[in-house]
Each structure stands twice: as C-alpha cells, then as structure tokens.
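User: Quick sanity check before I run a bigger batch. Here is a single chain. Can you write out its predicted 3D structure?
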Amino acid sequence: MMEPREKYEDSKKNYRDIKNCMDTAFKEGKEAGKEEELKQGEIEGLKKGRIEGLKKGRIEGKKAIIIDVIRKGVSKDISIETLTDLTGLTENEVLDIISTLGNDVK
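Assistant: Done. Predicted structure follows.
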C-alpha cells in the first residue's frame, strides 16, 4: 500500500504529465491555426489581386483601344465631334489625347 506522501508525489507527477500534454496540444493547435489562417489569407489575397489585376487590365485595354481609335481617326482626318461620339469622351479629353500622340499619328 502507498504512503500518503507517495500518493501525493504520484498525483503531482500525473498532474504535470497531463498539464504538459495539454499545453503541448494547445501550442500545436495554435500553430496549426496560424498556418491555416496564413494560407487562407494568401488565397484571399491572390483572389483579390487577380480581380484587381483583371479590372486594371480591362481599363488599360479600353484606354489603349480608345487611343488607337483616336490615332487612326486623326490620321484619316475624322472630326473631333465624330471622335467624341465614337469614344464617349469629351472634346477636351479627345484633344488631350491627340496632344499626347504627337508624331505617333499614323
């Protein structure tokens, strides 16, 4: 039969073992959660970046098309009024683009 002191020491040892297991499990769970959170953040960031990139790409593409229409229109002596109708831009916006084209008009 165990002495009371031995029971107490044995009980303390068991408690420490269980506490260490719990602390380790908590720490591992917390680290796994952080890793999963980072992965989710990366995925969300990539999705958002792709969407923003596509939006910017579309806008830049539309700008390039409008500039090309104005460039070709100027080279064919199309009126500013017609260019504003074709592009949806104001007369001042069309004139600003024409001024940036310089010798690029073909």
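The first helix runs from residue 4 to 75.

User: Great, the batch can go ahead then.
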